[in-house]
Every structure is written in structure tokens, then in C-alpha cells.
Amino acid sequence: MSTKSTLPSKDRGFGDTLARIFTRTGIKKVVEAVAGENCGCEERQEKLNKIFPYEISTTTDTADVLHEEERSVRDEG
Fold first, then answer.
1. Model confidence over 23-74: pLDDT tens digits?
2. Which of 24, 17, 30 is nearest to 56 (CA)?
3. Which letter, b or e, does each residue of 42-62 get, where b requires 16 or more Cβ atoms within 10 Å of its Cβ?
4. Would you call 74 exposed, middle or buried from its count of C-beta atoms within 10 A (0-12, 13-18, 19+)?
5. What is residue 38's predicted lDDT score, i.e. its pLDDT?
6. Rounded distance, CA 47 to CA 50, Å?
7. How many Å apart are CA 39 and CA 33, to the nearest integer?
8. Does pTM surpass 0.90?
9. Cα–Cα distance measured from residue 28 to residue 2, given in angstroms and rounded to the nearest whole number
10. Half-sphere exposure of 69 (CA within 13 A, CB side)
11. Of 39, 55, 44, residue with least CA distance to 18
């Protein structure tokens, strides 16, 4: 059984996810029709990305970190 990530790798944070959802559901067009083209969506998207970033590390495996900590403890003892 393969495990597939539910988040696209291009999403940098929660703001990107919300923007994608709002675009696909048509909410973004409704907001732009009511508030105009400059509704502040991009600024909110960036703020949400900074507050709630997706920190996905592809270079460090959690098991490697745990093994390194175990080696460190053994070397000290």
C-alpha cells in the first residue's frame, strides 16, 4: 500500500492551500466580483503562509535523526 501526501508539494503554507481551494470552488471569483480585483487576498495568503508554513524536509529522515541522538547518548555514557 502506498501512502500519498494529501498536500501538493507546491503549497508553501496554509495560505497557498486556502487560495487553491477558493479558486477551485469559485469563491475567489465571487470575492473579486464583490470587492474588486485588489481585495487583499494575496497579502492574506502570504501572511498565512508565514504564520502556518509547511515545513516538509525531504533531506532529513526522522529515523536518521533518532539514530544520531542514540549514538550521541551512547558516546557520552
1. 999 999 999 999 988 889 999 999 999 999 998 655 555 555 555 556 655 6
2. 17
3. eeebeebbeeeeeeeeeeeee
4. exposed
5. 87
6. 5
7. 10
8. no
9. 34
10. 6
11. 44
Q: What is the pLDDT of residue 47?
A: 96
At 77, list the grid cell.
555514557
More confident residue, 53 or 6: 53
CB 38 within 8 A of CB 72: no
Q: Which three cell numbers stand for residue 72?
A: 550521541
Residue whose C-alpha cell reads 502506498 in the numeric block = 2
The 3-state secondary structure of the chain reads CCCCCCCCCCCCEHHHHHHHHHHHHCHHHHHHHHHCCCCCHHHHHHHHHHHCECCCCCCCCHHHHHHHHHHHHHHHC
